[in-house]
Amino acid sequence: MSAVVATVIDRRAGARRMHVWLGLILAVVSVISLTSGASGTSLAAVVGKLLSGTELSQMEQVVLWDIRAPRLILGILVGMALAVSGAVMQGLFRNPLADPGLVGVGAGAGLGAVLAIVLGGMLPVVLQDWVGNWLVPLAAFVGAWSSTMILYRVSTRRGRTSVATMLLAGIALGALAAAITGVMIYLSDDRQLRDLTFWGLGSLAGATWAKVMVAGPLIVLALAGSHFLSRGLNGLALGEATAHHLGINVQALKNGAILSVAAASGAAVAVSGGIGFVGIVVPHLLRLATGPDHRTLLPNAALLGATLLLLADIMARTVVAPAELPIGIVTAVIGSPVFLWILLRRRGLVDL
Amino acid sequence: MRGHLALRCSRLSFALCLYLGGVAVASAAEEEPVLSIGGSLTEIVFGLDQAHRLVARDSTSTWPAEAEALPDVGYMRALSPEGVLSVDPGLIIAEEGSGPQETIDILEAADVRFVIIPETYSASGIVDKIIAVGEALEVPDIAASYAARIEAELAVAQAQAAASAKASSAPKRVLFVLSTRGGRVMAGGENTAAEGIIAMAGGVNAARDFQGYKLMSDEAITVAAPDVILMMARDGAHAGDDELFSIPAIASTPAGRDRNVIRIPGLLLLGFGPRTPQAISTLSGALYGDG
User: Fold this and answer.
1) DSSP per residue over chain B, as a string?
2) Which position among A5, A304, B174, B248 has the lowest Cβ density within 10 Å, counted as fewest Cβ atoms?
3) Is A203 helix (H, G, I), strand (E, B) or coil?
4) Closest CA–CA distance from residue A289 to any residue of chain B (Å)
5) Which residue of B16, B75, B82, B179 to mutate against A (max A Cβ within 10 Å)?
6) pLDDT band at residue A187 using 50, 70 and 90 as cut-offs
């Protein structure tokens, strides 16, 4: 007994140490992200100039302040949102393959974006001028949020949400969204078709301070909220009935989990397009390393998710410079072999 | 803290504006480095003898061969702001529809001149394009004479094409096929560059009643009854003739019976640039057999 307690404590201490390490790595990667890019601007040169009081060239100012800085912040936010949402979903569904896509976020956001890209031109001119570039992110967020809410309604009866119904209804709703998306693809012209494809592959290239200001608070709030879910998610790992008897308000937990995931990953998808695998790979790696306790898993997932997304973004923008790869390609290329490796190493997961 | 920073930044950029303004007035004649986004625009820059000013191109600029040696900033609809800035252009000329808007906003913040050149699929559209590029490059005189030359070439090519179309029993019905992946035919309908070039070469677009490039049903292809299939030439594309004519819908048309297919490189055929007269002559020659 005492040995078991000792390992648990040991694991928790390990996970706490992990906070520090991951935080440090994230800091280092952030600096690398600010320093690397297609243009020759380097952070060291700029810091040197600032210290010696020399004026920055306008090029340096724009590259660092208008391009790399918002991109860095947005990358951190999106990475955190995707990884934490993935961890929360896996906890809620008690399924290692769960990700925000299960509650319709991906399908809904995709449908919203496609509708905006293809039919955006038909909106009244006044409205077009008013929303401008925000049409696609806005539509993606509305799509993500509303499809999650529809799913939630469908699977909630007499104040109780059935996780199984939600999963199945999610598949049905996903198929419906895919069908409507197909109709839109058919209606689109070749330019819109290119836009759709690029949107689906995700990118942080369009990062602006305005996007950070809009998506940031939403993601930060949702992530902060998800921290209060961790004890409940730990209880839920034992099953809904057991969790209930442990004194956990299971319905409130579900509400909280679904709302925070819809807000965080909906906002993330809206500003960056479809970025896969971060939500699945990050929580798995951490569970293998430091165990499944959500109290430490969620903050670690946030840190590692942000780190991985920044690394992927650095690759995306330097490999084919001065052009740029969509980041979804990079995360999938890195993520899918890692994911397969995890599955094969831990056969138990496949046999679930 | 942030207010302080913002203040410093704005002061800094004010000073910079003054500085840059002075530079611009002092050296208006100095030639800015140019980034060309769009295959036909790059061709025009070469035609205007301004190729030495090009520092980079986009992925659609594949002609002439010298252009391919320039750094490639990626696809015109998905430009990365830092990638574009890294080639340090003073002027960017871009085809209509280049973007995304976020990138353009940042480039404007960086004081890079960004000129969008409108696109129309007609002879006058090409002339306007050349004039617009000439104005952006500040070589209006060269552009005017070059545009006049291309306009004359276009007129000659179109007149020849019209004459040979008249000499033939009836104008040829042409179906532009973008792709035949999986036996499904993606064809060029109304308001496409394909329709524009077919009309200029004295042909008739067989695919009507839909806009843009769409999948065409087998029956619609049979009803359209094209005399000729027009496709973009790719490397080693001629191997695909058997595959093309094995598609039942195409096999049943006059084009399928006579195995009539014309393949022309995509940028030449659909670019609507200075090589369009050549594209018209090539297409018309292939259609009416007098090229």
Assistant:
1) -HHHHHHHHHHHHHHHHHHHHHHHHHTTTSPPPEEEESHHHHHHHHHTT-GGGEEEE-TT---SHHHHTS-B---TTS--HHHHHHT--SEEEEETT---HHHHHHHHHTT-EEEEEP--SSHHHHHHHHHHHHHHTT-HHHHHHHHHHHHHHHHHHHHHHHHHHHHSSSPPEEEEEEE-GGG-EEEE-BTSHHHHHHHHTT-EES--SSBSEEEE-HHHHHHH--SEEEEEE-TTGGGGHHHHHTSHHHHTSHHHHHT-EEEEEHHHHH--STTHHHHHHHHHHHHHS--
2) A5
3) coil
4) 36
5) B82
6) confident
Query: What is the residue type of B145?
Result: S
Q: Report the gap between the CA of B13 and the closest CA in chain A (Å).
A: 7
Q: Is a pLDDT exceeding 70 seen at residue B267?
A: yes
B212: closest CA of chain A, how far (Å): 6
Q: What is the pLDDT of residue B8?
A: 45
- Which residues in chain A touch residue B73, judged by CB atoms under 8 angstroms apart? 322-323
Q: Does the ipTM exceed 0.95?
A: no
Residue B1, pLDDT score: 41
pLDDT at A58: 76
Which one has a higher pLDDT value, A104 or A280? A280
* Record: contact B59-A323, CB cut-off 8 A: yes
Which DSSP string corresponds to B126-152?
HHHHHHHHHHHTT-HHHHHHHHHHHHH
CA max distance for chain B: 80
* Residue B22 scores a pLDDT above 60: no
- In this complex, do B110 and A62 lie within 8 Å of one another by their Cβ atoms? yes
Neighbours of B72 (CB within 10 A): 20
Band of residue A164 on the pLDDT scale cut at 50, 70, 90:
confident
Share of chain A above pLDDT 90, in %: 31
**Cβ–Cβ under 8 Å, residues A94 and A242:** no
Q: How far is B250 from chain A (nearest CA, A)?
A: 22
Q: Give me the mean pLDDT over the B232-237 stretch.
A: 68
Of A37, A191, A322, the CB nearest to B77: A191
Within 8 A of B109 by CB-CB distance, chain A residues are: 62, 66
How many whole angstroms separate alpha carbon A194 and alpha carbon A182?
A: 14
CB A38 within 8 A of CB A321: yes
Structure tokens at B215: 């999948």
A222 pLDDT tier (thresholds 50, 70, 90): very high
Residue A221 has pLDDT above 90, yes or no: yes
Judge whether residue A54 has pLDDT over 70.
yes
Give the closest of A37, A67, A324 to B106, CB-based.
Answer: A67
Of A38, A198, A320, the CB nearest to B86: A38
**What pLDDT digit, counting tens, does each position of B160-171 carry?**
999 998 888 889
What distance lies between CA B165 and its chain's CA centroid?
26
How much is the average pLDDT of A161-172? 85
Residues of B at the A interface, defined by Cβ within 8 angstroms: 9, 12-13, 15-16, 20, 56, 59, 71-75, 77-78, 80-88, 97, 100-103, 105-106, 109-111, 211-215
pTM of the prediction?
0.80
Nearest neighbour of A133 by CB, restricted to B88, B101, B212:
B101
Q: Is it the case that residue A62 has pLDDT exceeding 60?
A: yes
In single-letter form, the type of residue at position A145 comes to: W
**What pLDDT shows up at residue A348?**
58
